[in-house]
Structures are given as C-alpha cells and as structure tokens.
Design a protein that fits this description.
Number of helices: 12
Strand content: 5-15%
CATH topology: Leucine-rich repeat, LRR (right-handed beta-alpha superhelix)
Distance between the termini: 55 Å
Number of strands: 12
Oligomer: single chain
Largest sheet: 10 strands, parallel
Shape: elongated
Length: about 300
C-alpha cells in the first residue's frame, strides 16, 4: 500500500498484476533451486493465491520433489491451484503448515477427480484451520495412495479423525503419523489403533492429547502396533497406572524411542518404564522433562545415560 502525499492524502490499494509479480516469483524460484534443483524452499514469503498461481505454472518446478511453503498465506483457492498443477507432477514432499487452509479446501482436495499430485509421500498440514470435518475425509481419500508421512497436528483433530484413521483403507504406505496438540482421548485412540493404518505405523506422535491412563492402557494392550518404533505420549495426563501399563506391555516391544515426559506419573510409574523387562529395544527414553528441578530423576530423562543411539 502506498501513500500519495500532498494536500489531500490518499491511499493506493492497488496490487501488482500477475505479469508484474512474475519476475519476482520466478527469480525467487531460480535462486532457491540454484543449490538443489529438486528442493524448493519458500517458507515465510507471505505467498498467497497470486504467487502460488505463478509457481504452479512455472516450468522451473517441473523436476522438484520437495516443496516447502510453510508459514505463508495460502488459503483454499491456492491449495486447489497447487493440487491441480501440471508442473508439479514429480512432487513427493510438500509442507503447507502454518497457513490459512480451511475444511472446505481439504474436503475439495480429498474428493477431487482432477488432482494431479498423486505421488505425495510426505504431507505437512499442521497449524491450519482444520477440524474432524475435513481431516476425516482426508485420511479416507484415495488421492494420496503413496503417502508415507502425514502431519495433521496443532489443529482440531479429535475422536472423529481418530475413528476415520481406524476405518481408512486408502493409506497402505503410511509409516509416520503426527497428531500432536490434538483432542484425542481413550475412546478415540481405541478406534485409531484398531485399523490398517495403525498396523503399518513405525512412528506415532500423540503428544499433548487427552489420553490419560485409559488411553495409555489401550496403546499398551494393542496387538496392532507391532511395527511401531517411535512413540510420543508426552503431556497426556498419564499417571502411575498408565505408565505401569506401558512398562509392562508385551506388544510394544519393537519400540526404539519412547517419549512420555510432562505427564502425571511419579517415581513408581517412572521406574515401571525405566526398569521394563519387555521394552528391550529402547535406545532413547525420556520419562521426565525439566530434570533440573528433580535431580533424583535425572537418569530417567537423559537418553545418553540409558541406551544411547549408536
């Protein structure tokens, strides 16, 4: 916005045309691709619909495999343009976190028959304006057949999304699922771990949900998580009862990394996990964060003093 100075000040609300924007966007793309022609990082550029329109048309992006558009101003219209781009056919990883995408945009992407981005393996949507309404459609959509990693945390995912994940049969390759800062409770996690998606997962992040002891017990008792290697359960209101269930689980014995800090269990629960006889593959274990205030538990919280990664 410009200001015309003079006797009568006026504001100029005009914005550049696509033709005027094109050199700037093409220049930014060229600069970022100079070091790696397969990776395009454009986070924090304040890009919205016009810039995305130009990017999606650019011949420079035809060979990129990784596109980072996090922390921009991308809304539903720009999302549709991206998803139908004929220049991004080789794209395998896209970061759309911290934008302005709503349920309408995701529902349209999930149901569209004109989507061209069929090779996406990593999709980051965290911190948008999404709820169970669209996330349930997303995880049941047939438009993401190659998806291996999905981040839908820091939004309003709840039991509806968990239930849809439990019912989904369209994500056969999903190995990593991020649901941090969501609203899933024991009932929801029971649905989540019951289906085909959970059976193939190698990494599951449920930090900062509403699991409590009951949810912890559901996870500990699930026979469907045998491929799981990395599990985040921090900040879930888990007490001694839930921690003891995790420590005694015979179904989570493939875990190599376990994070359960910022919960409500005390020494009894911490010892149950720390002295586990079943989670024998653990290399990294975080039972308590902020150990400077509880030095007696320091050994429970410093992974290098337990089973260090080699």
């Amino acid at each position: 916005m410009g200001i015309t100075r003079g006797g009568n000040a006026e504001y100029d609300d005009s914005k550049p045309t696509l033709e005027e924007l094109a050199p700037r966007v093409e220049g930014a793309i060229a600069k970022e691709l100079a070091s790696d022609s397969a990776v395009l990082k454009l986070s924090g550029k304040y890009y919205s619909t016009d810039e995305i329109t130009l990017l999606a048309r650019s011949s420079q992006v035809s060979q990129i495999r990784v596109l980072d558009l996090g922390d921009n101003q991308i809304g539903d219209e720009a999302l549709k343009i991206l998803s139908e781009s004929t220049q991004l056919l080789n794209l395998e990883e896209i970061n759309l976190g911290i934008n302005f995408i709503t349920d309408n945009g995701i529902k349209e992407w999930a149901s569209s028959s004109t989507v061209t981005l069929k090779n996406i393996k990593t999709l980051i949507l965290s911190d948008n304006k999404l709820t169970d309404d669209s996330l349930s459609d997303l995880v049941k959509s047939s438009n993401f057949p190659e998806l291996e990693s999905l981040d839908i945390g820091w939004m309003e995912a709840g039991n509806g999304t968990a239930k849809a994940l439990g019912e989904s049969d369209t994500l056969p390759h999903l190995k990593k699922l991020e649901l941090e800062r969501s609203y899933i409770d024991a009932e929801g996690v029971r649905e989540l771990v019951s289906g085909k998606v959970a059976a193939s997962l190698e990494e599951l992040n449920l930090s900062a949900n509403k699991l409590g002891d009951d949810g912890s017990k559901v996870i500990a008792g699930s026979t469907n998580l045998k491929n799981l290697k990395v599990l985040y359960l921090s900040q879930n209101g888990i007490g001694d009862e839930g921690a003891i269930a995790i420590g005694a689980s015979t179904h989570l014995n493939g875990l190599t990394h376990l994070y359960v800090g910022r919960n409500e269990f005390g020494v009894e629960g911490a010892k149950a996990i720390h002295q586990t006889q079943t989670l024998t593959q653990l290399r990294t274990l975080v039972l308590k964060e902020g150990v400077e205030t509880t030095p007696d538990l320091v050994n429970y919280s410093r992974p290098e003093l337990l089973h260090p990664d080699q």
